[in-house]
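Lecture 7 notes: from sequence to structure.
We start with the chain below.
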Amino acid sequence: MKHGSNLSDNFPQSRVSSQCKSTARRLEAFGMPIAYHNRSPVEDVPYRYCSSLIELASTVDTLIVAVPGGPSSDHAVRKDVFDALGADGVFINVGRGSTVDEEALVRALSDRTIAAAGLDVFANEPVVSPELLKLDNLTALPHIAAASKATRAAVAKLVVDNVVQWFTFGRALTPV
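Predicted structure tokens for the same chain:
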């Protein structure tokens, strides 16, 4: 069997993130060999390097994508990636919804090009495609990365710090 994790990709980032490395370590605990894709091999990463997303998808049976959004990653995961992942493949996206061609994902799940998918991000959040939600081989969750106590405490502190900064100096720490 083939196993793997997408530690990174060839999009805006140039290094494998600590989030991706920690995911890989967790998967290793289950005896899963890890493979990754990045613009170039990463020296401090002991896992198999794949030179393209297609090569990675054809190497693994679980493709985990944790990719930042933006023009260079828009719809990077599309029909050819799902075809390479194959009928026993599972696709998991915890990055950004814009990185996935959702129409291609719906087709791949509907016609069993891939076995299943797990998503906590969607192309048009907070609206989720009704076609996706009808599928019995999709697990969909709301984006919960910011739901930890530590993250919520940090957000609350940042709000207070911004209010104090505004009323003290007339400007916010993190203007939007």
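Points to note: The CA atoms of residues 115 and 125 lie 24 Å apart. The beta strands are 35-37, 48-50, 62-65, 90-93, 116-119, 138-140.
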